[in-house]
Structure formats: C-alpha cells, structure tokens
Amino acid sequence: MNNKFNNETRWYKLDNTANIFPVISNKRLSSVFRISVTLKQEIVQNILEEALEETLTCFENFRVKLKRGLFWYYFETNKKPFLVEQEQDYPCTFIDPIINNQFLFKVTYFKRRINLEVFHAITDGGGAINFLKSLTFNYIKLANKNELSDEALNTPSVEVFSDVEDSYIKNHKKVHAKSLGIKKAYRIIDKKIPLSIISTIHGYINTTDLLKLCRKKNVTITQYLSSIMIWCIYKEYLNGQPNKYPINISIPVDLRRFFGSTTSTNFFSIFSVGFIPKNDDYTFDEILEITSNQFKEQLTKENLSKKISLNVSFEKNIFIRFIPLFIKNIILKIIYDKSAKSSTSVLSNLGKIDVPSEFEKYIDNFSLLLDITESEPVKCGVCSYGSKLVCSFTSKFETPYLERAFFRFLQSEGIDVIIESNGVYNENM
Amino acid sequence: MKICKNCKVKVISNNKGCPLCKTVLTPSDEKVIEDIYPIIKTNFKKYNMLTRIFLFLSILGAIVTIIINYATYNGLLWSVISIAFILYFWSIISHAIKHNINIAYKFLVQTICISLLTIIIDYIMGYTGWAVNYVVPELIITANIAVLILIIVNRMNWYNYVLYQMAIVILGFIPLILFFLGIIHEPWSTTISVVVSLMILCGTMIFSDKNVKNELKRRLHF
Questions:
Q1: Residue A6: pLDDT above 80?
Q2: Do residues B35 and B14 touch, judged by C-beta distance below 8 A?
Q3: Which residue in A81, A373, B38, B115 is a FRET match for B26, CA 20 to 30 A apart?
C-alpha cells in the first residue's frame, strides 16, 4: 500500500490574488507568463521529462487542476501524467486545461532553451523561478552525471518543500473594505498584428555597465528602466505633447522579501508609477526623479501591508463569501475591466537570479516574457543572470516603436545592447 | 552578429533587416546563427462550418416563424414555441452532446431546460397547468432516478456526481413550494417527487463514503 496521505485527493483554496485569473482568462487574455532558461547544451526530451517528474514532487502547487465550487474556485491534486513538448506556439498563449491534462502550466523546450509557462493562478514570478531553477538543476544533474562532482550532485535543488501558505491572509490586518479609487491612464493605440501572433524582442545588456550608470544617477535598475519606458512612450506616442491622462507603468513587487515568506503560491502586489504630461518640455532626468521618488514613497512595508489588508478584506467579507461563484465572477470581471484601464504598460523585474556555483557554467541566461492584454498591448520583462541582463518585450503592435526607442535610448547612454527577436517584425518585410 | 547603423545596436539574426527599424544590417562577423524561436505554423481557428450553418438556419427559422405568425395571427403566439424549441436545440448541441461535461450535470441542465420548454408551451397554448402539475415533477423524479442508476453503476465515481445529485434533490422540493403557493393542484406527483428526493438525500447521508463527503466539503467551501 502507498502512503495514505498521498492517495487521498488533496485540495486547497486559491490565494487572494489568484481568484481573479480564472475569471478574466481566455484565448485573448491568457494570464500566462513565461520564464525561460537557456543552457549551453541542447535539451534532450526524456532527460527533461525525468527532471520534471523529480521537480514536481517538491512543488505541490504545480501538480493541480482547477475546480469550481459553489462559492469559490479551488485546486485539487492532479494525478494525471504531465507532458513535455517541443515548443510550437507563440509565447504566453492560453493554456487550455482540457488539452493539457488539466495542468495549469506547460514545460516546452527548443534547442538549448527550456520554457516554463505558468497560468498566473498557481503562482507568480517568484514561485515560478524557484520551480524553473529546481527543474534546471535536476536537468543539469541528470544530463551531466559523470562530469559533476559528488558535492554538486548532492546539492538540493529546492530551498523549501511545497509551501502553499496564503501569505496574503497570513500578513493581513483587519481593515474596512473601501473603494479602490481607480483612475484612467493613457492607452497606447496603434495598428496591431492579426490573430494570435505575439512579437518578442530581447535586448541583452551587460549588468555591470547598467549598474554603474544607475549608481551614478543614484537610482535602482527597475527605477531607471521604468523611467526609460515612460520617457519613450511620452516621446514616441505622445510626441512630447501634454495629455490629460497619466502615463502609468505597473510594477509588480515580490512581497516575499518584505514579509519573510517562503510560499510557492502567489505573493506579489502591483503598484504604479507615472506622471501626467502637463507641459511639453520635460527632460528625461525630470521623469527619472519623479519616478524614483514614487518608488520610494510606495515601496514601504506599511504601504504594501495596507494594500494586502484591503484586498483580503474583500475576500473575508461575509456577504461576498456567500455570493454564488458565477455572480462573483461577473462582479470581478467588471472590477478588473475598470482597473485594467489604469495602466499603460507593465515592467516586471525578476531581479538577479542566483544559482549554486557548480551549475553556473551550464547556464547561459534566464528571460521573462509577459502576456499582453487588450489594454496593455506591450509589456517588458526583465531578468538578470550573471553579467547578462535581458529586457524582453512582448508586443501586439505592428511597428515596435517603444522597443526601438527604448533600446536606442540605452545605446545612446553608452550601454551596449544586443538584440534578438522571434522574427515577427521581419516577416512583414 | 550584425550591426544596425540606425539603432547603433548589435543584432543576432539570420534576417537581413533590423527587427527594430528594418534598416539593412551590416554584418560584423560571419558566424552562422541558430534561431532562438521555432517557426510557428499559425493555427487559424478552425472554421466551424456546421455550427455556422446551424446558427444561420436558427436565426432564419426564427425570423420566418415570427413573420408567418404575425401575418396569420389568430390569437395564438405559436412562434414563441418554435423559438423555444430552437433555443432548446442549442442547449443540446452546446451542452448535452459535449463529451467532457459531467453526465450528472447534463441531467440537471436538461431537466431545467425541458421543464422551462413545457411550461412555455403550456402557457402559450392557454394555461391549463399540465406542465407544472405533471411534467415538471415527473421530470425531476426521472432525473433523480437516472442519477441514482448512474451512481449504482459507477460507484467509485459517486463523488464526481454528488454536487449535481444534490442540486437535483433540491429541485425535487420545488413542486412542494409551488403546491403551497397554489400553483400546483395535483398532490400525487408533488408527493412522489418530494419522497424520492427525501429518500435520495437520506440514502446519500447513510451510504456515502469519505470521498463523497470530502467532495461536498470542497465544492461548498466558502
């Protein structure tokens, strides 16, 4: 007989932010993000499958299917086998649970790259990177058995075993639910690529060069890059003219480091930085100052704690809890559609990714790709590993004005940029 | 590696143009580059001819019946009945014949749809109450028994059906409410419907195992 605990169907509730994703997601809005790792060797499918199986035992929150309750969605253990495939779709396409054995994530590979695509309901970037790191370590261990030292082979590939705590609830304080106060932001409008095609442009930057520049300006990398984004939208799409709506960039923050959590489910919050272009004579340095001050104001533990508490107070509200799921979904959809208008674009920085020194020589780079939505048709994912920082733009636009301005700006600041793309823009030539 | 004169950036690409500005690239070394993304065969959404034909015929049929009904009006709104049938037909092709939907869920939906259909027919034909008095309670009894057979045949899967079974059980009590409201006059069909529902509720409580109870707990958590 197997362990009784393993045989029983386990289930748990969706965390506080996860509740929104099953409601809003469909083929047009996938709520799927992709983190890829490029190794220095070609990927072999059956080794990857073996590595994945090993990894899944440590991540309970990935081995789930989504079920509907009468009042809420919930996750239930998925006992079906998981399938690894060669990459054959554009990044961040909708994960249809019916064809994916009901799993809410996908692992694909192409040449030297492993892609992990995750439906946002199961985890955020922080949780996904832990999963991908563990998968990569397991893969490297299996693929290089003879080469690696015993010490490396015995290095554990996870730091924490499936912690599925809802850290939002754990860290909330009682507050009264109040209105969120959503304000409309400037929206980029331009000609779009048809159908399900997504354009991807990566820009590889030397981390040390960029850090040096940021130190000189006394800002962080995220502050600097988001300021460039705002600046480029202001210059490219508004032509440097005043506008009544603000240019807002949403920045997701990993809350784990603020609240000392190790959860592998969602634990992030979003805040937005930006400005209303009132005149037509802003300089980049002014925007950089406005933005970095907003970071300092908003990125405090008290402020984040307030946000968490407000969100949890909705979930905990006794009236909301007893509304049947399908009515809840209608309400959530309306709230989401409204709040989506308050942001022009997204910049998500996963930060520096550390790996144990034994594995360093096998890994080339990590990159983050975000899904695009109707209201935010271009987004930027940033992630750095070793001396390589990758800015990856996903976009729905026919002409990459924002990307072009962004990388040209960096280049003009004396930072070398190497561009690689998935060729969507070249196809139109 | 290539260089774009306009953007001043380096480009890794097999293409001749810069992905940012389409300027012709200047090669800086002759190394062969491997593509980092696969060539994707755009999977255009399958053009579902059959569904489109049905949709077209449905709308056409509805409009034609409304016009004929209007032109030959003799106090009977029979076009409402044919439109109700068209809608019912759609409930079958969009739900009942789909293979990945829980069978008990199909029973529940069909019970509700057929009930509504018969009530509409009764109402249009000059209300005599045959639908609510006889058809609706008997439909609910049939659904209750059908799910019961399903569970007996496939006992290991009981927990998958239990939520919908309970929903049908609750439907079984609706005739009782209608009886007290004076909408139903026939006591026998109501009594049988309520008794069957009660027996099934009682049987579920006594015979169900831990799996079934856990499933209910999961589905009803709040």
A1: no
A2: yes
A3: B38
Cβ-defined contact of B20 to A404 (cutoff 8 Å): yes
Q: Which of A360, A407, A392 is nearest to A115 (CA)?
A: A392
User: Are residues A339 and A225 located together in one domain of the fold?
Assistant: yes
N- to C-terminal Cα separation, chain A: 63
* In a shared domain, residues A166 and A205: no
Task: Inspect the interface and report whether the beta carbons of B19 and A69 lie closer than 8 Å.
Answer: no
Q: Dump pLDDT digits (tens) for B145-169.
A: 999 999 999 888 888 899 999 999 9
Question: Cβ of B220 and A422 within 8 Å?
Answer: no
Residues A246 and A100 reside in one and the same domain: no
Are A153 and A245 part of one and the same domain? no
pTM: 0.88
- From CA B30, how far away is CA B1, in angstroms rounded? 7
Whether residue A28 is predicted with pLDDT greater than 80 in this model: the reply is yes
- Shared-domain flag, residues A214 and A163: no
Minimum-distance CB partner of A420 among B36, B44, B211: B36
pLDDT digits (tens, 9 = 90+) for A410-419: 999 999 999 9
CA B110 to chain A, closest CA, distance in angstroms equals 19
Chain A residue with the nearest C-alpha to that of B21: A404
Whether residues A32 and A159 share a domain: the answer is: yes
More reliable by pLDDT, A381 or B40: A381
Quick check: B36 and A195 CB within 8 A?
no
Find residues 321-340 of chain A whose CB sits inside 8 Å of chain B. Answer: 321-322
Dihedral angle of Cα B117, B120, B121, B124, to the nearest 10 degrees: -160
